[in-house]
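Running this now, will post back.
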Amino acid sequence: MKRVFALAGLAALLTTLAVPAWAETTIRVTLQLPAKHSIGANWEAFKKIVETESKGELKLQIFAGAQLYKDKETPQAVGSGAVDAGSVFLGRFAGSVPAVEVINVPFLFEDEAALRSAVATGSEMRTALDAAVLKETGARVLWWQAFGRNIYLSNDKPIRTPADFKGKKVRTYGKILGWTVEALGGAPTIMSGSKQFLAYQQGAVDIGMTGVSAVKTRKLYEVMKNMTLSFDSAIEFVAIMNGEFFDSLSKKNQDIITNAARTVEKQLRDKIYTQEVEDVKFLRTKMNVIDLTDAERAQWREATKGVGDKFATERGPLAAKIIKMIRK
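Update: finished.
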């Protein structure tokens, strides 16, 4: 009998030793972009830091290429807890927080330094927008993901001046960008990024709007002949996490996630414009790349100068406050 109890005690001890003192937590992440895109690589860097710093207590499972949700579905999926985290174009929150589309107001940021200052962690604009997104949607913004600058694609005729937009159907990815297209003389059509290739191939739109990196990774140069480097606005994605999920984590793991987010945000922003130059160089071998002259760019500025005022007037008090803040 003593032997039976001894064996039972030994078995219980071995079982206890075999079970870790912590419960492993898996963070499921949805991406609509390919894994090899800069946004995907950014999440991989985040994953490495988090898993290492938590000693395996936190694990990330990344589903790229819209395997789980398309871009427009991601805010709801993360906010509701259907998935733990993900990346989404910042403008997708415009329905709940109209002011987020300030980043798409054409020619608002004078240069890269002005943009960096406005979107930096702890800046007045960033703090206000991040808080509003969490309050209205349940999604916590972990970090902003620089995507690059806005460009236009075309097939029949290179886009050089606003006159080239007249009567053209233009793919956009946000309401304010639609205002920009209208100011330039075109007709905007909002379309998810993952649908671009087929839409351009089938001629569903005449002109495309996207970022340089997307032209390369999505191989849009196979279905569009011309790329105009307008660089009229910035493109920003945000890495988000369900607010309740984040709050359920230990303080230690929250700090690991927060610190890792700051690290990879800086890494991506430092890299993105250098990578953009390299991508443009590559794309010059695949398509006709148009560099606007100062005179041509001035026509774009003149045509779109009312978009910022309209944004401040129609998108609510927070939008007006941020426009004033940036222009100051």
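DSSP finds 13 helices and ten strands in the chain. More later if anyone needs it.
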